[in-house]
Amino acid sequence: MNIKALIKSMLLRKFATGLLIFQLILTLGLACNSLLLSIEANDKLSRDVGFEMDNVVAIQIRPTSEAFLDADFFLSVVDEDMAALKALLEVSFVSYTNQLPLMHGGNFHSIEDINYPEDAPVDNQFNGIPTYYTGKDFFRLLGANMFQGRDFEVADNATRGYLEDTDFEPNIILTRSLAEALYPNESAIGKQTSEGRIIGVVSDIAITPSRQYAHHGIFKFRNMARAQARLFYLLKVTPGKLQETKNKAIEALKKVHPERDIRDIFTMTQHHSDYYKEATSLAILFSLLTAFMLFVTMISSFAHAHFHASKQKKLIGIRRALGARKKDVLLYVMSENWLISVIAAGLGIASVIAINMLLGKVISMPKPDVTSYLSCVIIVFISGTLATWLPAWKTTKIAPVTATRTV
Amino acid sequence: MLSMKNISRVYRSETIQTHALRDFSLEVEKGEFVAVTGPSGSGKSTFLNVAGLLDGFTQGEYTLDGTNVSGLSDDDLSRLRNEKIGFIFQNYNLIPDYSIFDNVDMPLRYRGLSAKQRRNRIEYALELVGLASRHNYLPSQLSGGQQQRVAIARALAGEPKILLADEPTGNLDSLMARQIMDLLKEINAEGSTIIMVTHDPDQAREVNRNIQIIDGQITDYSIYAPMQPDSSIALDKQLPA
Amino acid sequence: MFLYYIHLFARNVKRTPLFFALVALTLSIGIGTLLANLSMLSLMYKDPIPGKSEQIFNVNMNTYAGANNRFGSMHVLRYSDAKAILDSKVANNATMHYSSMVYSRRADSQDLTRYASPTRATTASFFDVMGAQFAYGEPWKNKHSNNIVIGHELNAKLFGGANSVGEKLELQGKIYTIVGVLKPWEMRPLFYHASEGKAFDKTDDIFVPIEVAIDNNWAVFARTMSTDSYTTLDQTRQINAYYIQVFVELLDDKQRLAFQTFIDGYANQLKEKGNHRHEVDNRLYNVKEWLDENEVVNKDLLAFTIATGLFLLVCIFNANSLMLSRYQASQFEANLRRAVGASKKQVFFQGVVESIILGFICALLSFVLAFSLLALYRQLFDELAPVAELPLHMLVIGFGVALTSSLLSTVYPLIQGTRTSLASILK
Fold first, then answer.
1. Quick check: A89 pLDDT over 50?
2. Looking at beta carbons, which residues of chain C come within 8 Å of B107?
3. Of B78, B109, B111, which has the smallest distance from its Cβ to C338's Cβ?
4. Closest to B81 (Cβ–Cβ): which among C4, C332, C341?
5. Which chain B residue is nearest to residue C16, measuring alpha carbons?
6. Quick one: closest CA in C to A361, which residue?
7. What number of CA atoms fall less than 13 Å from residue C345's CA on the CB side?
8. Buried b (16+ CB within 10 A) or exposed e, C229-247
9. Which domain holds residue C121?
């Protein structure tokens, strides 16, 4: 194969060839960045959350009647709800919480050891810690294990204590990361903090994965008992009976008291994918765009090869007359596409970096790496080859006799 | 009708200058049928291109039907081509997926004629070349001779002052070539001026004037007796306005 | 002549339908995706209150009583600070509010169905500052009365759109009298509550005097910060609970300076009294600045729009090279036309007409595509659903983009086409 001849023939169509190379470069740039976003989204989704998501159903419920403004009434209905849900055959555990793991906004508190000076600023990592008000069996339901100390017992229920005194000091459980950060090199169990006494440390669960201290969390055995506060019921359900149980649960709750708004009912698996929806959606959009772009670039490769070949009919005829085999002609047309791809692959690196920087100004972008770049080069290469194959194959049909025709 | 005085046409490439026409002068009167012969590369085609306003010239003066073409804009040149010149090409140059009718229609489209006027002219021109019944045929459904007749009809439909034919019979067998020659002679007899490039010395002798171009210059200049129109073919129709 | 060109376009399409389909498809895909994104961005960048957006300011203060000052100057203020600003009357007009949600039903209704109603606890001045128009009635006169204003949608839901002034609603177990009904009120973005992802929420259903809402413990459905613990909202007037947003209307720089001087002085005084311990840092954001500060424009969308812009570029290049091929393929015909008397201009215009028609077709196709993409967006991004629309002015822009793209794809090939020497036609 004579590269010089190839380059010469490409120079004959500078403009068209230039356009195609430019297209390929941009396609590579976009494809590679899309791939990076997809990989990142996939990474996020497949990261272990530290609790069981399958067969856990969450129900967001809010009373609509003024009767629930009374805390005692509110709590009695919650007790009845818990009992009614627990009575369902398909349900093995029930609990409640003011917020779910994998949360964006919610209830945050600061925490420090009780002896920390009150006037001193709190270290950033102990400021604004997601603070959960949960019911009994919350950790067991989620399959989150105690790392140290013990789980909540009935006697730990701080609901009444808080209703009587807003400065009540409850027993609390911390996540392992938080406990170890707050009490490095010693056990946190038994320590008094600004939020209460630590009785247990639970193994890390994904609470705010999008933030820096993703596993910091404080747990209190407490019900806010406020009609307008957010409240979720959690159910652990027998595998395979999700939908059925959802319907039964709603029915059971309505039966306990009809004047409630079931705002949402979903599985933790759904909650998990919703949590990452933005990242996955963006990746989907970018992939879609990349697919469009590949498609468009394939059209270009096709057209480029097609018209180039038809323009060079006579030359190819002469080659055939002079003894070039069909294979050689095929290779000739294909290698032009390959040469274009190689040039684009070289320049594409710049476009990957440029697009990465451009997008990086707006959103957080993973840095490009060699593997993902090469994968994209291969994809572009293959799609270019596929698109060129048909016109190239057609070219081999040019008869040697073309060479001798004058018209 | 056509007057060229000291026309030169030089092609310049990076390395070479080619004098396709040099100091070329020619007068063609109204009603003449001129055959142009000469070896390949002698400048015949350049002459025809310049005469047909398809190509410019480097020096000299060219007057077509009283209009000096030097310095005319593309618009003016196009109008002159459209109104005064009819082209007949060796390979017919018909648009393959246009019907016969539409092919003949093409030049008329650029003249702002009404649909009725165009139809009259097309029908007349097709009748003149003997293809009146084949309006809707595609070129591929016709023989080579018939295709050339369509091309002649296309050239005639615009009522040109001068017909320029580039080896009109070059792609045809001798029988068909004969018919096309007869047709051209009829048209000439009607009063049209024709300049025809040809390789065929016999054809050249049939017309009333024969010039030979060698190396971009007219070298041989012979006038034959004006030919009598063949009385067996009577053209009794006038071209419609 | 124009008609003839259209006729020729039709013939050309018939001759190479695949080619035109490809060009139209590539351009439409490019334009459609860009259009869908631009539509959403245009709604996000929209001025929610034209004419007044330079005169309304969100007040941020740094009077946080705690040792930690993670948020610096904050848009949520204490009741006492908000009240001090309103009572001072330094600003031309001012309002304070917080976001709540109550379940509403007609007091005379027989059934117990209640509607979840987004609620704004605010002052009577709110409507004037925010430019809300009344269909019936007017704002409450007494800020301690159980009087409310309701929005158009709730009025339609509960009263079928009739004049409901004087009617009563039961909210949180108490009876409230409707004194005003708003005209349909769309504010996008919802700049009076641009934080906490509420920027594209609808305007509220119920507006209640803020004093009444606090007295009755209507919960805050937005960021609340507190250094003191409390059980009910009515305890928050005196303590350090930060949940109220303040907007002021300042007509010119002089008023703005006067107001800034006032709150700075106010905050300094408090600091001297030991009420808070942070550097005085009071900021005024006008509507646009406030929307920017809250990043109401979705960054993902912005990034994707950049990408679609690049994609359209690729589509134009693609169409360009296809066109180039086509003009090369049809060079014979163009030359023939010129030989028989068409001028360069005419051949050029024929191409332009072709390109314009193509542009129109692309525009129509891209609208279809944009609509489908917006439907996809509504599926993929919950928070974008309210702005996933194709407003009328974007259709006009779409036509513009389509025509420009189409012309851009044609212009080089066309010029190339008219440049070739005519002499070649003879051979």
1. yes
2. 340-341
3. B78
4. C341
5. B97
6. C303
7. 10
8. eebebeebeeebbbbbbbb
9. 56-293
Q: What is the pLDDT of residue C344?
A: 87
CA distance B150 to B140: 12
Architecture of domain B2-223: 3-Layer(aba) Sandwich (3.40)
Domain count, chain C: 2
Is residue C51 included in any domain, yes or no?
no
Among C242, C266, C293, the domain boundary falls at C293
Kindly list the residues from chain B whose CB atom is less than 8 angstroms away from the CB atom of residue C423. 45-46, 49, 54-55
Of chain B, the end-to-end C-alpha distance in Å amounts to: 21
pTM summary value: 0.81
Mean pLDDT of A22-38: 92
Say which of A19, A228, A293 has its CB closest to residue C321.
A19
Name the average pLDDT for chain C. 90
Q: Examine the pLDDT at C224 and tell me if it is beyond 60.
A: yes
Q: Are residues C197 and C316 in the same domain?
A: no
ipTM for the whole complex: 0.84
Whether the predicted pLDDT of B25 surpasses 60? yes
Tokens read off for A370: 């060699």
Q: Which of C214, C140, C129 is nearest to C181 (CA)?
A: C140
C209, C354: one domain: no
Residues C230, C344 share a domain: no
Same domain, C234 and C370: no
Does any CB of chain B come closer than 8 Å to the CB of residue C274?
no
Beta-carbon count within 10 A of C421 CB:
11
Per-window interface: A 166-225 vs C, CB < 8 A = 166-167
Identity of residue B149: R
Average pLDDT over residues A285-290: 90
- Neighbors of chain C with 3 or more C-beta pairs under 8 Å: A, B
Average per-residue pLDDT for chain A: 89
The larger pLDDT score, comparing residue C421 to residue A243, is at A243
Of B90, B106, B111, the CB nearest to C337: B106
Beta strands in C126-219 (DSSP E): 134-137, 147-150, 168-171, 174-182, 206-209
Quick one: how many helices (H) and strands (E) in chain A?
12, 11
From the CA of A151, how many Å to the nearest CA of chain C?
26
pLDDT digits (tens, 9 = 90+) for C352-376: 999 999 999 999 999 999 999 999 8
Residue A23, chain C, CB below 8 Å: the answer is: yes
Residue of C nearest to B112 (CA): C1
Q: Which of A174-188, B152-166, C287-301, C402-416 has the lowest mean pLDDT?
A: C402-416
Kindly calculate the radius of gyration of chain C based on its CA atoms and give it in whole angstroms.
30
- Of the residues C293, C317, C340, which one is the last residue of a structural domain? C293
- What is the pLDDT averaged over residues B213-241? 56
Q: How much is the pLDDT for A311?
A: 72
Q: Is A396 helix (H, G, I), strand (E, B) or coil?
A: coil
Residue-wise pLDDT for C47-102, tens only, equals 999 999 999 999 999 988 877 777 788 999 999 999 999 999 999 999 999 999 99
Q: C317 — contact with chain A (CB < 8 Å)?
A: yes
Domain assignment present for residue C91? The answer is yes
Say yes or no: C9 and C68 in one domain: no
> Which chains lie within 8 Å of chain B at 3 or more CB pairs, if any?
C
**Would the pLDDT of B234 be above 60?**
no
